[in-house]
User: What shape does this take?
Amino acid sequence: MDKALYIGMSGAKQNMLAQRAHANNLANVSTTGFKKDFAQARSMAVFGEHHPTRAYAMTERPGSDLSAGALMETGRKLDVALEGEGWLAIQNDRGEEVFTRTGSLQIDVNGLMRLPGGELVLGNGGPVALPPFDNVQIGADGTVSVVPVGGAPDELVEVDRLKLVNPPSDALEKGLDGFMRRKPDQAIDGVEPPDANLRVATGFLESSNVNAVEEMISNLQLSRQYEMQVKVMTTANENSEAAARLLQNL
Amino acid sequence: MHPALWVSKTGLSAQDTNMSTISNNLANVNTTGFKRDRAVFQDLLYQINRQPGGLSTQNSELPSGLQLGTGVRVVGTAKQFSQGNLQVTEQPLDMAVNGRGFLQVQLPDGQIAYTRDGQFQLNADGDVVNPDGYALEPAITVPENATNITIGKDGTVSAVTDDQSAPVNLGQITLVDFINPQGLQAIGNNLFKATNASGDPAEGEPGLAGLGTIEQGSVEASNVEVVEELVNMITTQRAYEMNSKVVSTTDQMLQFITNNIG
Assistant: This one.
């Protein structure tokens, strides 16, 4: 029995994993601020006391595509999208500082600014907390101002400033919660410093950067590749059947 | 089974929920005081299939691992409390809130519900009630011989009666506001209930402390934007079709292996 059967089998399995990565991208085609994941195959040679003829393929995620999605106009005062580079710093439920491009901000009952999933939005010194207000406004540099309850419309009081950060793209990776963070080997001392040059557009959200057509094509291509791997498996099976027939006739 | 099936299933159900939200918005395009919803999407957690930095041999490590997502979910719907257009109806008991704040009505079980729908009428006892018959809170009762009810911008209700030349003050309508209106629970009939997320109602006189004024003889139209909803419908439909294409492709792969290996 030729061991090519196992190579075909592992190839088919790795194709399925790559397809799942593309299916996840496509499932998130409407998720605001989503960054699509790359999937690539790496050849893994098998070393040992034998003739080096075996190389298995292995699917892996080298990183995520950090390019910006299109800006969608929502008109909501608390929707912010980053213009160009940068990330919004937020605090996830484990208390870690992570980065996102999803800017659908909400104010909870205690005046804390949160993302729809409940993550706290960070400002100059910890989470952004707003006093009771009649009106709220977010400026182009991320400054959050409010008209306090009962104040005149022109009495804007500056409360805090959204923490906008700009770590180098190659230092970032997507964590298991879907938010970006620094890779362990790219960590810096202390917290990520804010970058004063970043700009936000209010009343906009950034759409997912998934190209639906590309993901569908990848999926179809992988599906044909999978069929080829299955073909290798059936051929290996036929070969061993032929060998068995020859041995029967001896 | 093939994991892409379950991932695409989450995509299909999220787009399905989105379509329900859009159709509900469109269905309520002429509902007075209606506030449109928007479905909020979020990616689900990721699983580590191969740890980045894991050792592939004793002295070499994997440069990048394999972390696969598990799909998408609709994390919630966000009501958009932007102001709808004011439509003049000339009905004396129609009122629109111009600015922040909600009118209050008393439910049959005694609880208070909040609304932006200001179409009020009189019942047989002369009480001011909403179209479902729930009394406005604070209660206003109009005497039988009253003509020409006037509601001021600050919520003062007065009427002229047959036997008096000066108008009679019938009461004062108050408005309430919430720190987080998005946290209100919509209970249908254009009504909302307070929740832990919305905070407690802060009652006040219309026109003061940031509350809007009351405009007699107008109602607030729905804030649904038809064009936006139709565009969202198109994108939702196409995203749904693409996710279902992944499901059928995956199904064909499973069919292929069943037919060829065996």
Observations:
- Chain A touches chain B through 67 residues (CB under 8 Å).
- The two ends of chain A are 18 Å apart (CA to CA).
